[in-house]
Design goal:
Length: 583
């Protein structure tokens, strides 16, 4: 069943259709019900509990002991100790949440993919890079339209908001992006997410916790909602102060250009780029030709080889779910098979947004049957015009390295039990350490010299450009910090409510506005995610856990600092410890 559902889940994320979406609404709640039937079964739990009580006397090795502890914990946290009435209600709640989360994700996909900004006058596209215009032209042609078509996938959205001179079109695209899931139609997610929040609060109370966040965080590194709130608060005020400095500098540019408007949400990306060019003389058009997709991928492979001795060999003749998928056989430093790595980098209407790592099969090694994983990396890079190279922004480069870090975590894992395989065996606020650690390598001069080669000439990126990229590394961090923590605080606000408080929420938009206003979020900066399209927490596994990226950033910064201080970013001794103890 797990094998089948892994395939179903992965294909539904990358190549969905009406039939698959209808089946999702049936299958995921049913799978939830089957899991509940096992984990709340009194007879099965009695056997698990008997092993758990005797665990110290059974001669178990550390992983076996941990497996017993986590299995017992799974049963308890799912409701094995509840009375029959509470069990029945928790089962109802779990099935309903599964259904609602599935529909939430489907609605978001439909609204993201259905919007088109169709431009017919080339003058309206002033400022946009030629590569972006080429992709938009290709998209228009695929729809048999004249002109250019821009969608709401994150890469296209950020690019348009950053470079388009036409302020009205930026405003239109921004409004469409922010309105997803909240348009008053049959794909509106607001009632869905408020019901999910209420059900989670009720379930937490039945399980003996004050709120959903307390339930979730018990098994994370942070442990409590109070610890998370304190942690976010430490960064919130400095982030706001920095964002206000950035805003003042950008407003100065507006005045220098002879305009009299006040910067709004749809202006921030655009004027942040102008400020970057002014302060660091760094032009995206100048840099982007050095970040060709295939070269960047090979740069990530190079880092894995230098650090861990891992090699990647293209695979021929293996089944793939889409013709653009690139499969690789991954070998360890001793030539043994680590797994299969499948890369799906391009956006399409049948694919959900964002970037993620997943597995078709996890690793395990029981009784000497060494099962190696099948791991995927997914991005949403716009397809270029025919014959043109696929050029990435530097943000997309970092995203590729980030997901590659997750991929390595899944591939390098060496465990007997699939429960501990790769990302599945770690707390939510540790899981981003291996991915964010890998991001550091993208900007290292030694690594840039390998992969940052001009798409047309093959010339290695000049050192002066490398210096500019590094110097601009902290540019716009007030904005980035503020929008991220706003989303993290929003997550915590939805999930720290008691059932009575959650039941009182009638309007998701009003609740969100009140929460963010109370935190003092400036109007010029939107939360990274508004609730109706916050799929991390309402259709993914990050509820009460979106703070995890910042938490892990401390870990990955410390980890990479160790390499920098050693004088060798590929220090063999440190790399061996990193491979064994983390990846």
């Amino acid at each position: 069943l797990e094998k089948v559902m892994n395939v179903f889940g992965n294909v539904s994320n990358t190549d969905t259709n009406d039939t698959l979406q209808e089946l999702e609404v049936v299958f995921w709640p049913r799978l939830t019900q089957e899991n509940d039937a096992i984990l709340m079964d009194a007879a099965i739990f009695e056997r698990v509990d008997a092993v758990y009580r005797e665990r110290e006397n059974l001669g178990l090795d550390p992983q076996q002991l941990r497996l017993v502890e986590l299995t017992h914990r799974d049963f308890v946290r799912r409701g094995a100790l509840l009375d029959d009435e509470a069990k029945a209600r928790v089962k109802e709640i779990n099935a309903r949440i599964s259904e609602l989360s599935t529909v939430f994700g489907q609605n978001l996909l439909k609204q993201t993919k259905s919007f088109e900004l169709h431009v017919t006058d080339e003058a309206d596209l002033a400022g946009l890079p030629s590569s972006m215009m080429g992709s938009a032209r290709a998209k228009a042609e695929s729809k048999e339209l004249e002109g250019w078509v821009f969608g709401l996938d994150r890469g296209t959205y950020e690019g348009f908001m950053t470079f388009a001179d036409n302020r009205e079109l930026r405003k239109e695209l921004n409004a469409a992006y922010r309105a997803r899931g909240a348009q008053g139609d049959d794909q509106d997610n607001r009632d869905i997410l408020t019901e999910v929040a209420k059900l989670r609060a009720e379930r937490a109370q039945l399980m003996g916790y004050p709120n959903h966040a307390a339930y979730v965080l018990e098994t994370n590194m942070a442990k409590t909602p109070e610890k998370v709130e304190s942690f976010l608060g430490e960064v919130w005020e400095p982030g706001l102060a920095k964002a206000q400095e950035e805003l003042a500098e950008m407003q100065q540019i507006v005045q220098e250009e002879g305009h009299d408007f006040i910067i709004e949400q749809h202006d921030w990306w655009y004027y942040a780029e102008k400020l970057r060019q002014k302060k660091y003389a760094l032009n995206e058009d100048e840099v982007k030709p050095y970040f060709e997709l295939g070269n960047v991928r090979d740069g990530a492979f190079y880092v894995a080889n230098r650090l861990f001795g891992v090699t990647f060999e293209p695979l021929e003749g293996v089944p793939v779910w889409n013709e653009v998928v690139q499969p690789y056989k991954v070998l360890d430093d001793d030539g043994s098979l680590l797994g299969v790595f499948m890369l799906d980098y391009y956006a399409r209407d049948s694919k959900r947004g964002g970037a993620w790592m997943s597995t078709y099969r996890d690793a395990s090694n029981i009784d000497g049957e060494n099962i190696r994983p099948i791991v995927t990396n997914n991005l949403n890079v716009a397809i270029p015009a025919e014959g043109e190279p696929t050029l990435l922004s530097y943000d997309q480069v970092e995203t590729l390295f980030h997901e590659f870090g997750h991929g390595l975590h899944g591939l390098l894992t060496q465990v007997p039990y699939s429960r501990f395989s790769g990302t599945s065996g770690t707390p939510r606020d540790f899981i981003e350490f291996p991915s964010q650690f890998m991001e550091h390598y993208a900007s290292q001069p030694e690594v840039l010299a390998v992969y940052a080669r001009h798409a047309e000439t093959g010339e290695v990126i000049p050192q002066q450009l490398v210096d500019k990229i590094i110097a601009a590394g902290t540019h716009n961090q007030g904005f980035a910090t503020t929008e991220y923590i706003a989303a993290s605080k929003l997550d915590m606000s939805w999930h720290t409510m008691a059932p009575s408080e959650a039941a009182a929420v009638e309007d998701a938009t009003r609740f969100e506005d009140e929460v963010l206003a109370a935190y003092g979020k400036p109007g010029e900066i939107e939360s990274r995610y508004r609730s109706p399209y916050f799929s991390h927490i309402f259709a993914g596994g990050y509820s009460s856990g979106y703070y995890a990226y910042l938490w892990s950033e401390i870990l990955d910064a410390d980890g990479f600092t160790a390499f920098k201080e050693s004088g060798d970013i590929f220090d063999p001794e440190l790399a061996a410890r990193l491979k064994k103890n983390v990846y």
